[in-house]
Amino acid sequence: MRIDAHQHFWMYSPQEYGWINSDMAVLKKDRLPDDLFILLESVGIGATVAVQARQTLAETSWLLELADQHDFINVAGRHFGVF
Q: What is the residue extent of each domain of the chain?
């Protein structure tokens, strides 16, 4: 199985994702699993590793929820005590 080793998901908000600046306009929209799954499937990738786009416990929890809902998502987090 081929695996995409680094993927971010988010529901875009300029307040939450302030690191996305004007040079990154293409990123200023929601990036969710259903959109990615179509792309992964079309190129023969069977799984992805979701990585936090924000360093918060809420982000880690949300990614874990996404992984529970979508078999192709695995999660990497950085909050000690969560894993």
A: 2-76
Per-residue pLDDT of the chain (83 residues; tens, 9 = 90+): 899 989 999 999 999 888 899 999 999 999 999 999 999 999 999 999 998 888 888 888 899 999 999 999 987 655 444 44
pTM of the model: 0.80
Name 82's Cβ contacts closer than 8 Å, sequence gap at least 6: 57, 60
- How far apart (Å, rounded) are the C-alpha atoms in residues 6 and 16? 20
